[in-house]
Specification:
This protein folds into 2 domains: 20-251, no CATH class; 270-487, Rossmann fold. Mean pLDDT is 83; it is low at 1-20, 245-258 and 413-424. The termini are far apart. It has 488 residues and is of the alpha+beta class. It has 15 helices and 21 strands.
Protein backbone atom coordinates (compact mmCIF):
# COMPACT_ATOMS: atom_id res chain seq x y z
CA UNK A 1 0.00 0.00 0.00
CA UNK A 2 2.89 2.40 0.84
CA UNK A 3 4.43 1.74 -2.58
CA UNK A 4 1.11 2.58 -4.21
CA UNK A 5 0.86 5.78 -2.23
CA UNK A 6 4.33 6.89 -3.28
CA UNK A 7 4.05 5.62 -6.85
CA UNK A 8 4.59 8.50 -9.25
CA UNK A 9 5.63 10.78 -6.37
CA UNK A 10 9.31 9.83 -6.09
CA UNK A 11 10.51 13.33 -6.83
CA UNK A 12 8.22 14.95 -4.25
CA UNK A 13 9.24 12.32 -1.69
CA UNK A 14 12.89 13.08 -2.36
CA UNK A 15 12.30 16.80 -1.98
CA UNK A 16 10.58 16.41 1.38
CA UNK A 17 12.68 13.64 2.94
CA UNK A 18 16.02 14.15 1.20
CA UNK A 19 16.01 17.70 -0.24
CA UNK A 20 18.58 18.17 -3.02
CA UNK A 21 21.69 20.18 -2.27
CA UNK A 22 20.82 23.81 -2.74
CA UNK A 23 23.52 26.22 -3.83
CA UNK A 24 22.90 29.26 -1.68
CA UNK A 25 24.23 32.75 -2.17
CA UNK A 26 25.53 35.19 0.39
CA UNK A 27 26.52 38.83 -0.01
CA UNK A 28 30.05 39.47 1.19
CA UNK A 29 31.60 42.96 1.30
CA UNK A 30 33.43 43.51 -1.98
CA UNK A 31 36.97 44.57 -1.08
CA UNK A 32 38.00 45.38 -4.67
CA UNK A 33 35.11 47.72 -5.43
CA UNK A 34 35.35 49.23 -1.94
CA UNK A 35 39.02 50.08 -2.47
CA UNK A 36 38.28 51.47 -5.93
CA UNK A 37 35.30 53.68 -5.14
CA UNK A 38 35.26 54.26 -1.37
CA UNK A 39 37.54 56.02 1.08
CA UNK A 40 39.51 53.25 2.86
CA UNK A 41 40.07 55.51 5.87
CA UNK A 42 36.34 55.38 6.77
CA UNK A 43 35.00 52.26 4.98
CA UNK A 44 36.37 49.23 6.82
CA UNK A 45 35.74 45.51 6.19
CA UNK A 46 35.86 43.28 9.27
CA UNK A 47 38.47 40.54 9.66
CA UNK A 48 35.87 37.81 9.12
CA UNK A 49 34.96 39.52 5.78
CA UNK A 50 31.25 39.57 6.63
CA UNK A 51 30.69 43.12 7.83
CA UNK A 52 31.47 46.48 6.30
CA UNK A 53 31.44 49.69 8.33
CA UNK A 54 31.44 53.39 7.64
CA UNK A 55 33.41 54.66 10.63
CA UNK A 56 33.83 58.44 10.92
CA UNK A 57 34.97 58.17 14.56
CA UNK A 58 32.15 60.39 15.85
CA UNK A 59 29.67 57.81 14.58
CA UNK A 60 29.70 54.47 12.80
CA UNK A 61 27.27 52.60 10.51
CA UNK A 62 27.78 48.84 10.32
CA UNK A 63 26.22 46.64 7.60
CA UNK A 64 25.97 42.86 7.54
CA UNK A 65 24.06 40.64 5.11
CA UNK A 66 21.74 38.18 6.86
CA UNK A 67 21.45 34.91 4.96
CA UNK A 68 18.36 32.72 5.28
CA UNK A 69 20.47 30.23 7.19
CA UNK A 70 21.53 32.92 9.65
CA UNK A 71 17.94 34.13 10.06
CA UNK A 72 16.53 30.63 10.52
CA UNK A 73 19.26 29.20 12.74
CA UNK A 74 20.46 32.08 14.90
CA UNK A 75 17.88 34.85 14.89
CA UNK A 76 14.47 33.12 14.73
CA UNK A 77 14.99 29.35 15.20
CA UNK A 78 11.68 28.65 16.94
CA UNK A 79 9.78 30.60 14.26
CA UNK A 80 11.35 28.71 11.36
CA UNK A 81 10.35 25.07 11.95
CA UNK A 82 6.61 24.91 11.22
CA UNK A 83 6.74 24.41 7.47
CA UNK A 84 4.19 26.49 5.58
CA UNK A 85 3.06 28.13 8.84
CA UNK A 86 6.53 29.15 10.01
CA UNK A 87 6.22 32.64 11.46
CA UNK A 88 9.71 33.87 10.62
CA UNK A 89 8.67 36.90 8.53
CA UNK A 90 11.95 37.11 6.57
CA UNK A 91 12.26 33.55 5.23
CA UNK A 92 10.11 30.55 4.34
CA UNK A 93 11.50 28.71 7.34
CA UNK A 94 11.86 25.00 6.66
CA UNK A 95 9.05 24.92 4.08
CA UNK A 96 10.23 23.24 0.86
CA UNK A 97 8.57 24.44 -2.35
CA UNK A 98 7.32 21.16 -3.93
CA UNK A 99 7.68 22.59 -7.43
CA UNK A 100 11.22 23.85 -6.97
CA UNK A 101 12.45 21.17 -4.60
CA UNK A 102 14.18 23.63 -2.30
CA UNK A 103 13.48 26.57 -0.01
CA UNK A 104 13.51 29.77 -2.10
CA UNK A 105 14.57 33.17 -0.83
CA UNK A 106 11.73 35.37 0.30
CA UNK A 107 13.68 38.61 0.87
CA UNK A 108 17.15 40.14 0.87
CA UNK A 109 17.91 41.21 4.43
CA UNK A 110 20.68 43.31 5.97
CA UNK A 111 21.39 44.16 9.58
CA UNK A 112 22.19 47.85 10.06
CA UNK A 113 23.72 49.05 13.32
CA UNK A 114 24.18 52.77 13.98
CA UNK A 115 26.62 53.81 16.72
CA UNK A 116 26.69 57.44 17.86
CA UNK A 117 29.84 58.15 19.85
CA UNK A 118 30.13 61.94 20.05
CA UNK A 119 27.73 63.49 17.50
CA UNK A 120 24.80 65.46 18.93
CA UNK A 121 22.15 63.34 17.21
CA UNK A 122 21.96 61.42 13.94
CA UNK A 123 19.28 59.32 12.29
CA UNK A 124 18.59 56.80 9.57
CA UNK A 125 15.47 56.50 7.41
CA UNK A 126 15.44 52.96 5.98
CA UNK A 127 12.98 53.91 3.26
CA UNK A 128 15.75 56.04 1.74
CA UNK A 129 17.79 52.87 1.24
CA UNK A 130 17.80 50.89 -1.99
CA UNK A 131 19.71 48.10 -3.72
CA UNK A 132 21.20 48.14 -7.20
CA UNK A 133 22.46 44.98 -8.91
CA UNK A 134 25.07 44.57 -11.63
CA UNK A 135 22.41 43.49 -14.10
CA UNK A 136 20.35 46.67 -13.56
CA UNK A 137 17.82 45.69 -10.87
CA UNK A 138 16.77 48.36 -8.38
CA UNK A 139 14.92 47.48 -5.19
CA UNK A 140 13.38 49.86 -2.65
CA UNK A 141 13.40 49.07 1.05
CA UNK A 142 10.24 47.73 2.68
CA UNK A 143 8.60 49.83 5.38
CA UNK A 144 6.84 48.28 8.35
CA UNK A 145 3.19 49.38 8.47
CA UNK A 146 1.18 49.92 5.30
CA UNK A 147 -0.25 53.33 6.25
CA UNK A 148 3.13 54.93 6.94
CA UNK A 149 5.24 53.42 4.13
CA UNK A 150 6.16 55.39 1.03
CA UNK A 151 6.82 52.42 -1.23
CA UNK A 152 6.45 48.80 -0.16
CA UNK A 153 5.49 47.58 3.29
CA UNK A 154 5.83 44.29 5.12
CA UNK A 155 2.26 44.61 6.37
CA UNK A 156 0.83 44.95 2.83
CA UNK A 157 2.99 42.04 1.64
CA UNK A 158 1.53 39.71 4.24
CA UNK A 159 -2.02 41.04 3.99
CA UNK A 160 -2.10 40.00 0.32
CA UNK A 161 -1.00 36.49 1.24
CA UNK A 162 -3.11 36.00 4.36
CA UNK A 163 -5.86 33.40 4.38
CA UNK A 164 -9.15 33.69 6.24
CA UNK A 165 -8.72 31.08 8.96
CA UNK A 166 -7.90 31.71 12.57
CA UNK A 167 -4.51 30.07 12.07
CA UNK A 168 -3.75 32.53 9.27
CA UNK A 169 -4.68 35.42 11.57
CA UNK A 170 -2.37 34.11 14.29
CA UNK A 171 0.52 33.63 11.85
CA UNK A 172 0.01 37.14 10.46
CA UNK A 173 -0.02 38.76 13.90
CA UNK A 174 3.05 36.79 14.99
CA UNK A 175 4.98 37.86 11.90
CA UNK A 176 3.98 41.49 12.34
CA UNK A 177 5.01 41.41 15.99
CA UNK A 178 8.49 40.26 14.99
CA UNK A 179 8.64 42.88 12.23
CA UNK A 180 7.76 45.68 14.65
CA UNK A 181 10.47 44.53 17.07
CA UNK A 182 13.28 44.03 14.59
CA UNK A 183 12.82 46.12 11.41
CA UNK A 184 14.32 49.61 11.24
CA UNK A 185 12.04 52.63 10.96
CA UNK A 186 12.58 56.40 11.14
CA UNK A 187 12.06 56.99 14.84
CA UNK A 188 13.64 59.30 17.37
CA UNK A 189 17.22 60.40 16.61
CA UNK A 190 20.16 58.30 17.76
CA UNK A 191 21.65 60.44 20.52
CA UNK A 192 25.23 60.68 21.70
CA UNK A 193 26.50 57.49 23.39
CA UNK A 194 23.60 55.45 21.99
CA UNK A 195 23.32 52.63 19.48
CA UNK A 196 20.43 51.39 17.38
CA UNK A 197 20.27 48.23 15.30
CA UNK A 198 17.64 46.57 13.15
CA UNK A 199 16.94 44.88 9.85
CA UNK A 200 16.27 46.39 6.44
CA UNK A 201 14.41 44.29 3.89
CA UNK A 202 14.35 44.17 0.09
CA UNK A 203 12.88 41.84 -2.54
CA UNK A 204 14.93 38.71 -3.32
CA UNK A 205 17.78 38.93 -5.81
CA UNK A 206 18.02 36.81 -8.94
CA UNK A 207 20.74 34.17 -8.98
CA UNK A 208 22.56 36.07 -11.74
CA UNK A 209 22.27 39.46 -10.02
CA UNK A 210 26.06 39.79 -9.85
CA UNK A 211 27.64 42.46 -7.71
CA UNK A 212 25.41 44.55 -5.44
CA UNK A 213 25.45 48.14 -4.24
CA UNK A 214 23.54 49.11 -1.10
CA UNK A 215 22.83 52.84 -0.91
CA UNK A 216 21.76 54.62 2.26
CA UNK A 217 20.54 57.91 0.83
CA UNK A 218 20.11 61.03 2.96
CA UNK A 219 21.56 59.61 6.15
CA UNK A 220 20.80 62.35 8.70
CA UNK A 221 23.87 64.01 10.23
CA UNK A 222 22.24 66.98 11.95
CA UNK A 223 19.07 68.87 12.88
CA UNK A 224 18.21 72.59 12.72
CA UNK A 225 16.80 74.83 15.47
CA UNK A 226 13.27 73.54 14.69
CA UNK A 227 14.44 69.95 15.24
CA UNK A 228 14.12 69.17 11.52
CA UNK A 229 16.78 67.20 9.63
CA UNK A 230 19.12 69.69 7.97
CA UNK A 231 22.40 67.90 7.19
CA UNK A 232 22.64 64.73 5.11
CA UNK A 233 25.10 62.37 3.48
CA UNK A 234 24.79 59.30 1.24
CA UNK A 235 26.60 56.08 2.17
CA UNK A 236 27.45 53.37 -0.37
CA UNK A 237 28.35 49.77 0.36
CA UNK A 238 29.51 47.21 -2.22
CA UNK A 239 28.85 43.47 -1.95
CA UNK A 240 29.84 40.46 -4.01
CA UNK A 241 27.29 37.70 -4.54
CA UNK A 242 29.07 34.49 -3.56
CA UNK A 243 27.77 30.94 -3.88
CA UNK A 244 28.20 28.36 -1.16
CA UNK A 245 26.61 25.07 -0.07
CA UNK A 246 24.80 25.20 3.27
CA UNK A 247 26.73 23.49 6.00
CA UNK A 248 30.14 23.72 4.30
CA UNK A 249 31.00 27.34 4.88
CA UNK A 250 33.22 28.31 7.79
CA UNK A 251 32.07 31.12 9.99
CA UNK A 252 28.94 32.33 11.71
CA UNK A 253 26.38 30.73 9.40
CA UNK A 254 27.83 27.26 9.78
CA UNK A 255 27.68 27.07 13.58
CA UNK A 256 24.47 26.21 15.37
CA UNK A 257 23.38 28.35 18.29
CA UNK A 258 24.53 26.99 21.62
CA UNK A 259 21.96 24.47 22.80
CA UNK A 260 20.66 24.91 26.36
CA UNK A 261 17.36 23.30 27.23
CA UNK A 262 14.62 25.08 29.14
CA UNK A 263 13.87 23.80 32.62
CA UNK A 264 10.60 21.98 33.30
CA UNK A 265 7.85 24.19 34.70
CA UNK A 266 8.33 23.05 38.31
CA UNK A 267 12.14 22.90 38.30
CA UNK A 268 14.52 25.21 40.12
CA UNK A 269 17.77 26.41 38.52
CA UNK A 270 20.92 24.88 39.94
CA UNK A 271 24.61 25.24 39.20
CA UNK A 272 27.96 26.30 40.53
CA UNK A 273 28.04 30.06 40.10
CA UNK A 274 31.49 31.40 40.91
CA UNK A 275 30.93 35.15 40.46
CA UNK A 276 33.44 37.99 40.34
CA UNK A 277 31.97 41.47 40.87
CA UNK A 278 33.59 44.57 39.41
CA UNK A 279 32.16 47.80 40.82
CA UNK A 280 33.50 51.14 41.99
CA UNK A 281 31.19 51.06 45.02
CA UNK A 282 33.05 51.15 48.34
CA UNK A 283 30.26 49.23 50.09
CA UNK A 284 31.49 45.83 51.35
CA UNK A 285 30.63 43.13 48.83
CA UNK A 286 28.60 41.10 51.33
CA UNK A 287 26.34 44.09 51.96
CA UNK A 288 26.26 45.26 48.35
CA UNK A 289 25.16 41.90 46.97
CA UNK A 290 23.21 40.85 50.05
CA UNK A 291 19.74 41.23 48.44
CA UNK A 292 20.77 39.07 45.50
CA UNK A 293 22.32 36.37 47.66
CA UNK A 294 19.14 36.30 49.75
CA UNK A 295 17.02 35.92 46.61
CA UNK A 296 19.22 33.10 45.31
CA UNK A 297 19.07 31.19 48.60
CA UNK A 298 15.26 31.45 48.75
CA UNK A 299 14.40 30.79 45.08
CA UNK A 300 17.23 28.84 43.45
CA UNK A 301 19.71 26.08 44.16
CA UNK A 302 22.72 28.05 42.91
CA UNK A 303 25.95 27.49 44.76
CA UNK A 304 27.25 31.03 44.60
CA UNK A 305 30.61 32.38 45.64
CA UNK A 306 31.29 36.11 45.34
CA UNK A 307 34.65 37.85 45.07
CA UNK A 308 35.45 41.47 44.32
CA UNK A 309 37.45 41.95 41.12
CA UNK A 310 39.77 44.70 39.92
CA UNK A 311 39.87 43.04 36.46
CA UNK A 312 43.26 41.52 37.19
CA UNK A 313 43.95 37.96 36.14
CA UNK A 314 44.31 36.84 39.76
CA UNK A 315 40.90 38.27 40.75
CA UNK A 316 39.16 36.35 37.93
CA UNK A 317 41.14 33.14 38.25
CA UNK A 318 38.50 31.07 40.07
CA UNK A 319 35.37 32.76 38.65
CA UNK A 320 33.29 31.79 35.63
CA UNK A 321 30.88 34.76 35.72
CA UNK A 322 31.89 38.42 35.81
CA UNK A 323 29.32 40.99 36.95
CA UNK A 324 30.40 44.44 35.82
CA UNK A 325 28.09 46.86 37.62
CA UNK A 326 28.57 50.48 36.69
CA UNK A 327 26.92 53.59 38.09
CA UNK A 328 27.69 57.28 38.53
CA UNK A 329 31.37 56.88 39.43
CA UNK A 330 33.54 56.52 36.37
CA UNK A 331 35.08 53.16 35.62
CA UNK A 332 38.71 53.19 34.57
CA UNK A 333 39.54 50.67 31.87
CA UNK A 334 43.17 50.06 30.99
CA UNK A 335 44.67 48.13 28.06
CA UNK A 336 45.76 45.37 30.45
CA UNK A 337 42.10 45.00 31.52
CA UNK A 338 41.15 44.35 27.91
CA UNK A 339 43.75 41.59 27.65
CA UNK A 340 42.59 39.97 30.92
CA UNK A 341 38.91 40.02 29.95
CA UNK A 342 39.75 38.63 26.50
CA UNK A 343 41.51 35.68 28.17
CA UNK A 344 38.56 35.29 30.56
CA UNK A 345 36.25 34.96 27.55
CA UNK A 346 38.54 32.47 25.80
CA UNK A 347 38.63 30.32 28.94
CA UNK A 348 34.83 30.02 29.03
CA UNK A 349 33.90 32.99 31.19
CA UNK A 350 30.52 34.71 30.98
CA UNK A 351 30.07 38.48 31.42
CA UNK A 352 27.10 40.54 32.59
CA UNK A 353 27.75 44.29 32.22
CA UNK A 354 24.98 46.59 33.41
CA UNK A 355 25.10 50.40 33.57
CA UNK A 356 22.92 52.67 35.71
CA UNK A 357 23.22 56.36 36.49
CA UNK A 358 21.40 59.06 38.43
CA UNK A 359 22.66 62.03 36.46
CA UNK A 360 22.42 63.10 32.85
CA UNK A 361 26.12 63.76 32.39
CA UNK A 362 27.07 60.17 33.18
CA UNK A 363 28.98 58.61 30.28
CA UNK A 364 29.77 55.21 31.70
CA UNK A 365 27.76 53.41 29.03
CA UNK A 366 30.08 54.76 26.34
CA UNK A 367 33.11 53.69 28.40
CA UNK A 368 31.75 50.16 28.78
CA UNK A 369 30.69 50.00 25.13
CA UNK A 370 34.10 51.20 23.94
CA UNK A 371 35.88 48.81 26.32
CA UNK A 372 34.18 45.78 24.81
CA UNK A 373 34.47 47.26 21.33
CA UNK A 374 38.25 47.30 21.79
CA UNK A 375 38.16 43.66 22.91
CA UNK A 376 36.11 42.77 19.81
CA UNK A 377 38.70 44.49 17.60
CA UNK A 378 41.55 42.70 19.35
CA UNK A 379 39.91 39.28 18.99
CA UNK A 380 38.97 39.76 15.34
CA UNK A 381 36.11 37.72 13.91
CA UNK A 382 35.85 35.41 16.93
CA UNK A 383 34.07 37.95 19.11
CA UNK A 384 31.17 40.18 18.08
CA UNK A 385 28.46 42.34 19.64
CA UNK A 386 24.84 42.29 18.49
CA UNK A 387 21.34 42.32 19.92
CA UNK A 388 20.12 39.26 21.84
CA UNK A 389 17.18 37.97 19.74
CA UNK A 390 13.82 38.14 21.48
CA UNK A 391 13.32 34.39 21.07
CA UNK A 392 16.67 33.41 22.59
CA UNK A 393 16.49 30.56 25.12
CA UNK A 394 17.89 33.01 27.67
CA UNK A 395 14.41 34.53 27.99
CA UNK A 396 12.68 31.22 28.70
CA UNK A 397 15.28 28.89 30.19
CA UNK A 398 13.59 29.21 33.63
CA UNK A 399 11.18 32.15 33.88
CA UNK A 400 9.43 33.37 30.72
CA UNK A 401 9.97 36.94 29.48
CA UNK A 402 7.86 38.26 26.61
CA UNK A 403 9.25 41.74 27.34
CA UNK A 404 12.17 42.87 29.45
CA UNK A 405 11.48 43.67 33.12
CA UNK A 406 10.74 47.35 33.82
CA UNK A 407 13.39 49.81 34.85
CA UNK A 408 13.06 51.48 38.25
CA UNK A 409 12.64 54.98 36.87
CA UNK A 410 12.51 56.44 40.40
CA UNK A 411 16.16 55.52 40.84
CA UNK A 412 17.56 55.19 37.34
CA UNK A 413 18.37 58.55 35.70
CA UNK A 414 16.55 60.36 38.53
CA UNK A 415 17.33 63.79 37.12
CA UNK A 416 15.83 63.00 33.71
CA UNK A 417 13.00 60.60 34.42
CA UNK A 418 10.46 62.95 32.81
CA UNK A 419 12.58 63.55 29.73
CA UNK A 420 11.15 61.69 26.73
CA UNK A 421 14.45 61.88 24.88
CA UNK A 422 16.30 60.26 27.79
CA UNK A 423 13.98 57.27 27.62
CA UNK A 424 14.92 56.86 23.98
CA UNK A 425 18.51 56.45 25.11
CA UNK A 426 17.55 53.48 27.24
CA UNK A 427 17.60 50.27 25.20
CA UNK A 428 14.44 48.21 24.94
CA UNK A 429 16.66 45.17 24.41
CA UNK A 430 19.95 43.73 25.62
CA UNK A 431 23.12 43.50 23.60
CA UNK A 432 24.99 40.22 23.51
CA UNK A 433 28.66 39.28 23.34
CA UNK A 434 29.13 36.31 20.98
CA UNK A 435 32.34 34.29 21.05
CA UNK A 436 32.62 31.83 18.17
CA UNK A 437 28.86 32.33 17.78
CA UNK A 438 27.97 31.37 21.36
CA UNK A 439 26.31 33.98 23.57
CA UNK A 440 28.89 34.58 26.31
CA UNK A 441 27.88 37.96 27.65
CA UNK A 442 25.17 40.54 28.20
CA UNK A 443 25.59 44.31 27.84
CA UNK A 444 22.76 46.42 29.23
CA UNK A 445 22.20 50.11 29.98
CA UNK A 446 18.85 49.48 31.69
CA UNK A 447 20.14 49.74 35.25
CA UNK A 448 19.04 46.31 36.47
CA UNK A 449 21.98 46.20 38.86
CA UNK A 450 20.02 48.67 41.01
CA UNK A 451 17.65 45.78 41.74
CA UNK A 452 20.44 43.19 42.01
CA UNK A 453 22.61 44.96 44.56
CA UNK A 454 22.20 47.36 47.49
CA UNK A 455 23.29 50.47 45.59
CA UNK A 456 21.09 52.97 47.43
CA UNK A 457 19.99 53.53 50.98
CA UNK A 458 17.17 51.18 52.07
CA UNK A 459 14.57 53.98 52.21
CA UNK A 460 14.90 54.46 48.45
CA UNK A 461 14.06 50.82 47.92
CA UNK A 462 11.34 50.48 50.53
CA UNK A 463 8.38 48.43 49.33
CA UNK A 464 9.70 47.85 45.80
CA UNK A 465 9.37 44.44 44.18
CA UNK A 466 12.43 43.49 42.14
CA UNK A 467 11.56 39.82 41.63
CA UNK A 468 11.32 40.02 37.81
CA UNK A 469 14.71 41.70 37.51
CA UNK A 470 16.25 39.02 39.73
CA UNK A 471 14.50 36.26 37.80
CA UNK A 472 16.09 37.62 34.64
CA UNK A 473 19.56 37.50 36.22
CA UNK A 474 18.79 33.97 37.44
CA UNK A 475 17.98 32.99 33.84
CA UNK A 476 21.28 34.51 32.72
CA UNK A 477 23.31 32.79 35.44
CA UNK A 478 21.66 29.43 34.81
CA UNK A 479 22.33 29.80 31.08
CA UNK A 480 25.97 30.68 31.83
CA UNK A 481 26.47 27.63 34.08
CA UNK A 482 24.92 25.37 31.45
CA UNK A 483 27.07 26.48 28.52
CA UNK A 484 30.14 26.13 30.72
CA UNK A 485 28.98 22.66 31.75
CA UNK A 486 28.36 21.66 28.12
CA UNK A 487 31.88 22.72 27.14
CA UNK A 488 33.58 20.51 29.72
Amino acid sequence: MMCVLFSGCDSLYQYIVFPPKRIEYVLMPDSLLSKKYLDPSVYIISEDKRTISYDRKDFKVEIKYMSDYQLNTFEFPEQSVNGYYSTNPFTYGNWVDPELGFVPNKFTVFKVTVYNYTASKINFDPENAFLESERGDKFYCYGREEKSSRYLSMEAYYKKRKGTSGVDDDVFESRMGTIRRTVHYLGKPVFRNDVRDGLIVFDPLADDAGKIKLILKDFILGYDENNQPSEFTTLNFFFDRTAFEIGTVNGKDSVMRQTVSALPADAIPTGDAAIAVRTVSVTPLEQLMGPLQKYFSENTNFKTTLVKSDLSASSLKKSKILLLLNGDDQFTFLPEHEAVVAEFIKSGGFIVADVFATNESNRNWSYVNNFFGNIVDAMGGKLSISRVPSDHILYSVWKKFEVLPPVDIDLFNMQQKGDVDSKERMFEFMMGLYYENKLIGILSNRGYSISWGEFFAPEFRQGKNYSRQRELLSNIIYYATQIHKNEK
